[in-house]
Amino acid sequence: MKKLPNSVKWLIILVVLAAMGAMMWAVNDRASRVEMPAPDNTFGIYRTADSNS
After folding, report:
1. How far is C-alpha 1 from the geometric centre of its chain's CA atoms?
2. In the list 8, 21, 22, 37, which could disulfide-bond 4, CB 3.0-4.6 Å?
């Protein structure tokens, strides 16, 4: 890596960062399309919004 010019090093860094960004975007896009089930409130640990107050 010592013989490479700085421009080539920065190009490699930018390509790696772009690939990481593309992977994050793909994961986020896929996760946003997954329907999550409602939380199981068997033990009553989740608060519910009261419409009276």
Report:
1. 31
2. 8
pLDDT per position as a tens digit, 1-53: 678 899 999 999 999 999 999 999 988 887 778 787 887 878 878 777 765 55
Q: How many whole angstroms separate alpha carbon 15 and alpha carbon 21?
A: 10
Q: What is the largest CA-CA distance in the chain?
A: 72
Contact 16, 23 (CB under 8 A): no
- One-letter amino acid at 33 equals R
- CA torsion sign, 19 to 25 to 28 to 32? negative
